[in-house]
Every structure is written in structure tokens, then in C-alpha cells.
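pinned: reference chain
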Amino acid sequence: MSLDLEIDFSARIAELQKQLTLKRQEEKEMDEKIAAILRKNADMPRSLNLAVARIKSRLTLTESDSSQLGSSLQLTSVLAENVSGKVRDLDVAKTRVVECLQRVDDLLDLRLCTEGVQAALLNEDYEQAAQHIHRFLALDNAVFQMGEQWEKESKASGHTMKHSYEVLRQAEKDLKTLVEQKFDEAVKDGDVASMERFFKIFPLLNQHEVGLERFGRYLCTKIADFADTNYQSMVAGGGDAKRNNVLYADTLTLLFEGIARIVEIHQPLVELYYGQDKMLILIKHLQGECDVQAEKIVNIFVKNRQYEGKAKLIDTYARQATKYANLEKLDALELDVLLSEVTLMHTRAELYMRFLRRRVAGENAKERDGSAHQAQHHPAAVTAQIADAKADRQKRLDQLLNESKLGRRMQELLGQYIMMEQYFMSESVKKAVAMDVREGNSLTSSMLDDIFFIVRKCVRRSLSSSSIDCVCAMLNNGVAMLETDFFVALNQGIKSGYPATGALAEAYQTAAAAYQVIQHGGKMSAESGPTEKQREEFLTALNNLRAACECIKTLKESLSSDFAKHLTQQNEVQKAKLEHALGQLDELSVRFESAAKHGVEALVTAAVKTRLRAAVEPFLDVTHTPNESEFADLEANDPFMDGFVAALDKLIASFEHLLVQANYQDLLAVVCSETARQLEKVVGKAVFNRLGGLQLDKELRQLTGYLTSVGGWTVREKCARLTQITSLLNVETVDEAADFYQQSAVTWRLTPSEVRKFLALRVDLAADDIRNLKL
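pinned: its C-alpha cells
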């Protein structure tokens, strides 16, 4: 069999021909456009050639100008080199001329000094003579190395350089001896004006240290005189009986004030004639006498106040407290007075040292004005030089004060003070705990205010010493005491526990109380016996713990304010020490707050949990599989929830006036959590139908409404599991429960197994569907 195939391409060919015609038309139009563009731009090559010609011409001209400029610069460079060479030669010549003129002036000054010093000495014009000697000492050595030609010419007139040199050297020697003698005579005669006169001459003779040493010895005798007068008055008992408790501190203060006055009076004189850097030399002499006089005062203080003996006794007691427990302890009041005087002595010494630092650093108006004036004209160099000089003076003064007997003695007293202050704090706290009492309707006891008053007093007293290390040590001791002794005393009542409640427990406690009454005779009151005492101790301790948190925060704020006010001169290291010490109070507050929360939980366990369990048990007595008629009756008169809320309200209200506000709020939170947990338990023991789920939802809304009214909106979070359980018990079908669980935006608190468990409480849902539920 044959197969004939007929294919018709006519339509396809016609289409291709049509497209070809269109393309040819487009090609023709494109060629016409290109031709038009070329005709339009026919003159462009000619214009471009003309522009290139013009640029070439200009480049040729520029090349020629550049060549001429290079030649001119070369000539200028040669000329400048020649001129600079001549300028250098002229500068050298000028320098030599200036040096020559200076030498001539020096030679003239040498002759004038030679003639003038002799006349001044004859006229006893020692200031003028010193000026001539000062000019002579300031001359360059090159003056005495001039050529022989000048020497030969000078011999003709009888004035040789050697002769002038010998005359001036002898005059210098004689004037030094004479000034020293005159100054000593003025000191002996008590002639202050003459002393100052000759004191001003020493620096002109380059005898700065000699003058300062002799003047310092004179001032030291003045210090010794008034210090001895004050010492004798102190030994005699002082003039004011009201200040006997700070007698030695007052005497030390008078010594420091006297030295400060001397420094303040004579500092302008020293800085004007000797220079500011020389003031430190005079202070070094004065500090030596200050050490002697201060040590005398401290030694008699230690002896008469029995300071070291008491420190040794406290140290022995601290090391072996058990062994010496029965020994008579130091009187706290007497020790309080002693510690106050020690810190006052250290404060006065610190103020004295700060005064010296300010004086040596040049913190006065005159120097500030002078430094500012110089800095305006030479800001960089002068400012750096002033800063370096100031730092060097401060460093040397700090070394002097730290190595002085006064500094070492104060550190010794302060070291013993810290130990004694710790003992005072510890003993005062123990006494406050022993005398603890709760007054009237107060929710806290007396030791709370007493102990924090003691801690703040001790830390503030250490603050008056102006020693950062001392303040940090006492603050650390205070925190340690609050963390140990105070916390143990408060926690003792918590550890004893809150008396258990319930019929059996109350019956046992009543029987025990009755037995005690029969044993000792008498009548038994309704609130007698150890139970009520234990209950009161627990609640007081719990309130004390919570109130202590606020006291700690108040203490930190108060101390921070005190530190900012009194410790103004701190470096970064000292600031870090104080911040770390204060930070311990935050950690302590957290610990007390945590202990209070645990106490509230223990209170709920002992006093609320049993009653709460008994209050929710009637839930099982009410049917949760009601028919329509029973459901209507339950809506009209709920036999469980009304009574449960009333019982819960009565239970919570019984603690409202027994707890501080923060503890009461914690109690509400814990009770709400426990209520939800207990109710969840009984719900798990019941069975429900659809109407029973609706009834549970109504009861839960009533309960959460009440809890929210007493505990705030945060209570709803405590009932989250119970709310989700109620939602599951209100579904129509198992599939609805699955959709609700998977599509809900709420974070589920129930696991899939728990969801199946609570769905199984619905008697009207198929058990197989629940088992096969995929979550």
C-alpha cells in the first residue's frame, strides 16, 4: 500500500516574503538617515584640523616661554645663593660684634663692681655690695680669659683683671661671713626687720640653701616655743573641760595651725627672693620640727588614753574570742569617744598635708596670674615647663610627707583604729541584737534601725579620717558584719519556721501549751504558749529581712553622697576602690531580698498551703457533668467558687496587716501560684461534659478577677496553665482542640501528653480520637 503526502508551504512563503519586504524598507530608511547625517557633518574635519593647528601654535609659544622661565629661575637661584652666603657671613660678624660688646660691657661691669663693692662695704650698704657681688658671679668665665693685650693696657692705669678678680673674691668671702654674723645677731636679739634684711641678701651671694637653713632654724625655734606652751596647757588638762574628749586632737590642731600661719606669712618672701622651687627646702626644715612636736603629742595621747593597751586587748580578744569570752570587755561608750578623737587627729593631719601640697604646687592668685600671662605669650613651652616643675615639687613633697615621722605615726594610729572600730561595730551590733524588741504595732523590730545606724556611724567616722583605704576597709567590715552577724540574727527566726496550721497541728500545739500551763500552774489564754511567740518571731524576722533591703539601698545612697561631698581629691584608682566597696551593698541587698522571698514561700507552705488544699476539696463535691437544668442552677447559685473566694480572701487578709508591703506582694504572688496549682490538681481528678467545661470557665473567670483585684495584672500569668486547661475542656470536638493547640498564638504551658490527659476528662469526647490526636 502506498502513502501520498501533500504539504502546502504557500502560506509560510507568503509570510516570509512580507517580512523580507519590511526589512528592505527599514534598510532603505536607515541608509537615508546615515546619508543625511554625513551631509550635515561634512564641515567637521575641516574645523577639527583648524583647532589642532591653533593648539600646536600655542604649544610652541608655551615651550619658548618655559625655556625663558627656566633660565630666569637659574639666574635667580645663583643670585639667592650668593646673597644667603653674604647674609650668613654678616650674621657671623654680627654675633661676634655682639659678643665683643658683651665682653666690653662685662669688663666695664667688672671694674664698676670692683670699685663699688669696696665703697658699699665701707658704708655698710650690704645690699648694694651684694648686688655687685651678684653681678660679678653672673659674669661669663670668658671675661677672665681675655688676651694679654688688654691685660698690658690695663696695667698702665693700675687696674688689672687679676686685681679686680682678687678684690671681688675677697669681698665675696667677707660679705658672706658678715651677713651670716649679722643674721645670727638679729636672731639672738629678736630683731625681725634685720633678720629679713640679711635673709634677702643670701640669694644674691648664691647661698640659697644657707639662708633657708638659718631662717628655717629660726622658724623652728618659734614653732618649738608655741608648741611647748600648748603642750604644757594640754598636760595641765586644757582650758575647756567640755573638750577634754578631744584634748590631744585640739593640741595637734594648734600645732598644725601655727605652722600653717608661718608658711603662709613667709612664703611670699621666700618665693620673691629665692624662687618658688626653694619653698620646699624651707618646708623640709619646718617639717622636721613638726615631726618632733607631733610625736610628743601622739606619745602622750597613746599613754594617757591607753590606746595601744586597748588595741592589744582587742586584738587578743579577736584572735581568741572563746578563751577570753568571760573577761571584762571594753566600755563601748568610752571606745566610741576614743575612736572619734583618733579620726579627728588624722583629719587634722590630712588637712595640714593638703595645705602644704597646695602651697608647694603654687595654688595662689599671684602665681596663677603670672603663669597665665606667660602662657599667653609662650603657650606650649611655658605651660609644659610649669607643669613639669609643679609635678616635680609635688613628687618631692609627697615623698617628704610619707617618710616623715608624722605620716608614719598617723598610719600606725589608723591601722589600730580600723581594728578597734571593727570591734566597736561588732560589739554594738551584738548589743543591738540582744536588746531587740518590737514596739507597739510596728512590723519590724528595733535592731533594724539600730544596726544600720551603727554601720553608717562607723563608716562616716572613718570618712572623717580622709583616708580612702580606711574608708574602704571600714565599709568592707560593715558589709561583712551585715552579711554574717546581722543576717544570721535575722535568719534565725526564719529557720525556726512558722507554726504549722490545720486541725491536727493546732490540736497538738494546744495540747502542748496546756501541758506547759499545768506543769507551771496557771491559766491558759487563747494566744499563750510558744506557738504565738514563734509566729511573731517568724513574721518579725521576715519583715526585718525585707525592710533591710531598703535600708541597704538608703545606706548606699547616703554614703555615696557623703563620699562625693568629702572625698573630693580622688584619682582613678581610689574612685575604683570606692565604687567596688559600694557595689558590695548591691550584692548584699540581693541576698537579703532572696532570703525574704524564701521566707515568704516557707510562710505559705506552713500557713496557707494546708488551708488552701482543704478549701479546694469541695470542688469535687460539685458535679461537672450537669444537664441543662443542673447547669442553670449552678449559674444561679455556685456552691463552690463563692465560698472558695471568700475563704481565700479571709486567708490573705489575715496577713495584710502582719507583713510589710513588699512581703505582702510576694505573698500574694506565691498564694496565687499555689491556688492555681491546687485547683489544677482537683480539676485533674474530676470529669466534665460540655456544660461542665462552661461552668469551670465561669468559675475561673471569677477567681482570676478576684486575684487580679488583690494582686494586680501579673497574677494572670500565674493562672496561665489553668486557663489553657479550661480552654481545652470547652472545645466541641477533638479536632477543634487540635486546631486550637496548633494555631493559637499563645505560648502553651501544657505538653502534648498533658493536653491528651485533660481532654480525657471530657466524658463526651471519644477516647480513641483523643489517643489518636496528633499535636
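why pinned: DSSP finds 28 helices and no strands in the chain. The longest helix spans residues 44-122.
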